[in-house]
Amino acid sequence: MKVSKLIAILPHLLLIRCEAAFQHHHITTNKTAGTPRSIILPFSGRRQGNINLAAFNIDEIESNAISAAEIWDISVTKFLSPGDATTVESRLGNRADVSLTRIPSTAIERCKFLFTNPELEVDVTEYYASLRVDNIALGSVDPWGNVLTSIGVDLDDVGDVRVVDDAVVYLAVDPDVAKICCRLLPKELPGAGVTVSVLGEDDVVPDGGSIQSLDVQRLDKREQKRK
User: What is the pLDDT of residue 93?
Assistant: First the structure.
């Protein structure tokens, strides 16, 4: 091919490449045969310390929620902070054309939201897992944000972390990271015979408890806190 022709078509090749990259980044879907498509709302990344977090965009959440409702589809957010969750409920909680479900229903602070058509019945249990952690030496636990990120869990995949009766810890997590937590948390947490189990549908997460912060702290600050 002559150089002049190559130069002439080069801008078109670059445009096609950019459009393909944008379409790949724009939305992620997960199809299951016989069920509506589950849309994980797209976010751009931001960083807090060394942790990648999803940038909250209420306009984008609203747009995807309305689209899902119109086509009888499902749209699910990542776990949101209490402030972001309040914003979502204020914007979309009273719409007659969109069904909003808080996940899990027992969430106190951090939660996901599932949006769909009000007439579509959805089993929300497949969008989260409840974990129970026993035999932890709670007085020696590092900040939970540090613990979870140290085993490769994104904090956007974690809901409330609750300590109940100063003995047992309950976590709400995305199902995709439940196995990682069960396998690696016992190695990361202090205590003799630490166990992590996934609760079944008939198991009940107790009300209340002490909500643990997911802030990631520097090592020197953790050491000062323990003194």
Answer: 95
Q: What's the chain's average pLDDT? A: 82
Query: Per DSSP, which regions of 117-223 are E strands?
Result: 129-134, 158-164, 168-173, 195-198, 210-211
**Under 8 Å between Cβ of 48 and 65:** no
pTM of the complete model: 0.75
Residue 99 confidence class, pLDDT cut points 50, 70, 90: very high
The answer to whether 99 and 75 are in contact (CB under 8 A) is no
Beta bridge partners of 130: 172
Burial of 39 (0-12, 13-18, 19+ CB in 10 A): buried
**H-helix or E-strand spanning residue 183:** helix 175-188
* Beta carbons of 98 and 118 less than 8 angstroms apart: yes
Q: Which residues contact 192 (CB under 8 A, 6 or more apart)?
A: 135, 137
C-alpha–C-alpha distance, residues 165 and 208, integer Å: 10
pLDDT at 38 > cutoff 80: no
